[in-house]
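Fold these two proteins, one after the other.
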Amino acid sequence: MRTVAALALLCCLALAPGCASTPPRFYSLSALAVPTSTSSDVSVIVGPVSVPSRVDRPQFVLTTGANQVSIDDFNRWASPLQDNLAGVVAENLSALLGTSRVLLSQSSASAEADYRVQIDVWNFESVPEQSASLGAVWTVRRLKDGKTVSGRTSAREPVEGAGYAALAAAHSRAALRLSTDIAGALSALRADSPR
């Protein structure tokens, strides 16, 4: 029994230097919206945002076949995916609506907002060197009277280049499409706001 334990320890020690020589790389989504030239005082809460459990992990989850995924331990998201996505949507909305008053739902000032955005992501697929897909249902609620607008966004962006940075960039473009759809719904609700 001691011989087996000693052999197992030697194997672990022999493999450890190889593992230590490849540190994980970290990536994040980016806000891509171009700021509008108009300004507004509208206030928006973004959150909660949910993501499918299969991608709710630090590692990139890659679609490698029709019924197959792989988890890459050496390429990871820098923060929880739902937090990163919420932050990027908030930044995009701030630029698209021309307001600095877009908050995340964890903010202590969020109770004073005019609108709340809730996002339920049902698809977040990464196919290396091919495409990044984002599918979500979302709701925009006017907090003053509870009126809501709901929608669905399905975005599929080509991956422009090799590597995980290109994959994260494609997901960022998909998040911009989601943000643009939500901004349109917010603008419609604002135009329909009771005086």
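Now the second one:
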Amino acid sequence: MGAALLTPGAAVVPYSDDLLEQTEWLAERIVESGGEAWVLPVSELRERDEALIRARVRTARDQEYDTLRTKARRQLTNRGVVALEHGFRSVVARDHFHAAGRARARRAIDSARAHRTG
């Protein structure tokens, strides 16, 4: 979902109707499994706290994009490029704050596709 971990048991995701629905569904599954979970919408954060959370989420996505770039440099098979594309779409879906590494990862995957051997 692209959450930023605040503590070992608390995370924050940006607000959207879709993410709210996903977190509520996840909380229901946790409760049904015997655990405890709450979805607590936050309508306002201090500017400094929001900036910190955004930076944390961007850093996490950048690390994922860097991993994809590293894999793309070594990937020369069609199957591997397909896996990279799937991984890229997965990271993009969680990249709520547009991490800087997205374009670099895209270029690396495109280059791997252009140089694949089959």
